[in-house]
Specification:
3 strands; alpha/beta; 3-stranded parallel sheet; globular
């Protein structure tokens, strides 16, 4: 399934990932998100790799948890992402108005 975006995240940042996916879909983009698209019991690592390949863009929900996770850090390295400092998402409230 091709998509405009794949949202990469660690479970600690699930709420942010779902919010980002919802915002992208509301703007008319197709989104691949583990929470919505990965079938339980399948090879998760393979599914993540396929999602990155099938999506036009990858959005990584960067946090300390993501960067220190086995899969998040590996995904950044594999994609050759450069990490730029930004304000901490931990100080924000997801989806608050």
């Amino acid at each position: 399934m091709a998509a405009d975006f794949f949202v990469s995240y660690t479970q600690a940042d699930r709420a942010w990932a779902v919010w980002i996916g919802g915002v992208l879909e509301a703007e008319g983009h197709s989104v691949l998100l583990q929470e919505w698209d990965f079938v339980p019991g399948t090879n998760w690592v393979h599914a993540m790799h396929e999602a990155v390949q099938q999506a036009d863009r990858t959005v990584a929900v960067l946090s300390d948890a993501y960067l220190s996770s086995v899969y998040g850090g590996a995904e950044c390295r594999r994609l050759g992402l450069r990490i730029l400092p930004a304000p901490s998402a931990n100080s924000c409230r997801c989806g608050s108005s």
